[in-house]
Amino acid sequence: MNDDEMKISVLSSGSTGNVTYIETPQHKVLVDAGLSGKKIAGLMDSIGRDINDVDSLLITHEHSDHIAGAGVLARKYNLDVYANKGTWDAMASKIGKVPEEQRYIFDPNTTKSLGDLDIESFSVSHDAAEPQFYEFHHNGKSFVILTDTGYVSDRVAGTIENADCYLFEVNHDTEMLRMGGYPWPLKQRILGDHGHLSNEDGANALMDVIGNRTKKIYLGHLSLHNNMKELAHLTVSSMMQNKDIAVGHDFQLLDTDHDRAAHLTIL
Ligand SMILES: [Zn+2]
Ligand SMILES: [Zn+2]
């Protein structure tokens, strides 16, 4: 064991709110703040970390399940907030005032170095102003977050291939969504190219991008109404096993919760 590692915890994932925590020796950052500041502080507590030690917040897009607590957290804990121009413009009226010196532009498809943490942004296909997700690199290890996308383009697949760890979208079971009570336009939105990845879509995209380095995959952003943890897990693992991929041997397939933090994990 050395002490120069990247550690992560998916604090909350799902259509009701998304927050992920990443730390290196020099940085403690959050990606998205889709719950109240109080709830996020409590989730940090549950993994033995203090919200006061977080220095930066990266935003993916302006949907409320990603920014509900962003303004409060930024002001209360003096966080540096990173988002691209389109997202800043779209969320300005929703998160309240963030002091100028805490506002940073993170353009799509670029890399930023924050000390010992390199962060790559990549655009996705989703019905928000300028949605982008991130890949984190520290000391030879990489962690990709990709949810909220209608499909995974070849360009994105190339950017994120063979990471050590993924938090990946499996939003809905297509049958549950079709048969469920959502109005048809909303169903169409979710199923469309600017919506969300289904369990099958997520499995197929994952099989395209994982590689010999990949050791952990978190299944995330599950719909509360159109999916179940067990179903998502079973769909992905059986589709992979059908392609002779050794789930549970080559890598761990892990679940996430919308109200409970995953253990802090060393990559
Ligand atoms: Zn979302
Ligand atoms: Zn979204």
From TrEMBL:
Signal sequence range: none
Name of the featured protein: Ribonuclease Z
SMART domains: Lactamase_B
Metallo-beta-lactamase domain sequence ranges: 16-194
Top-level taxon of the source organism: Bacteria
Origin species: Pediococcus argentinicus
InterPro entries tied to this protein: Metallo-B-lactamas, RibonucZ/Hydroxyglut_hydro, WalJ/YycJ, WalJ/YycJ-like
